[in-house]
Design a protein that fits this description.
The chain is mostly helical and 220 residues long. It has helices at 3-33, 35-53, 69-94, 103-128, 133-163, 168-174, 179-200, 210-213, and strands spanning 56-59, 62-64. The protein is 75% helix and 3% strand. Helix 2 packs across helix 3. It is globular. It is found in: Cell membrane. It comes from Vibrio furnissii.
Length: 220
């Protein structure tokens, strides 16, 4: 294991420890006692596995696939969302879409950081923008998904540049040039998912509350 892989592993382990309390108090009791929530979680992980399996590799280390992590974060919160990406990543190793030694970097760059970005954009919209359902769908959903997908590619670019694997021109011509093409469908995927959930299954969204986004004018 190389130094950068070891550093990524340390960061991942620290965040796993940091998520333990939330998982133990909020996720695990509900998962073990509610069959509907259990089936939903299995379905979400399977859907995420399918999305991540359908990845295109421009060059080694420069992977492109839909993330759908904005929706995952809105459904489970950032701590539990990160937890759920671990078995999905393990499944990618089993089907040989990912090498064992690539797991720490993959979890860091393609799971943890995008999840943190998604939650940060949601938190900023929650605190600084009007709280209504349209702001949630279009900012925390469409815009958030597109921005998270774009920043994911940018972070991976910076990581590859820092390692000296590729030069800037190679990455730009083969990888960054795809950002505009991926931002819109990533935003559309997450925005439509959140719109459907807001209307039909708002109880599946951990960060969504009728009190905040629909009836907030009664509490001013």
């Amino acid at each position: 294991m190389q130094l950068e892989e070891l550093a990524s592993l340390v960061v991942i382990l620290l965040f796993i420890v940091g998520t333990a309390r939330d998982v133990r108090t909020s996720f695990w009791p509900k998962f073990t006692h509610e069959k509907t929530f259990q089936h939903l979680t299995y379905f979400v992980m399977f859907a995420l596995f399918l999305l991540w399996s359908a990845q295109a590799s421009v060059k080694e280390g420069l992977h492109i696939h839909f993330l759908a992590l904005t929706t995952l974060t809105m459904m489970y919160g950032w701590r539990c969302a990160f937890l759920l990406t671990i078995p999905v990543t393990a499944a990618l190793v089993v089907v040989r879409k990912l090498g064992v030694y690539d797991v720490p970097e993959y979890l860091l760059l393609s799971a943890l950081l995008p999840i943190l970005i998604s939650y940060a954009i949601f938190a900023l919209s929650y605190h600084y923008l009007p709280r209504n359902i349209f702001v949630f769908i279009f900012v925390a959903g469409f815009f958030n998904g597109g921005m998270t997908g774009s920043l994911h590619l940018l972070l991976n670019t910076l990581y590859q540049l820092a390692l000296g694997v590729y030069d800037w021109q190679t990455i730009y011509d083969n990888y960054l040039i795809l950002v505009p093409l991926l931002a819109f469908p990533e935003g559309l995927l997450n925005g439509m998912a959140l719109a459907i959930l807001c209307v039909f299954k708002p109880e599946w969204l951990r960060v969504f509350s009728d009190r905040d986004y629909i009836y907030n004018h009664y509490h001013k």
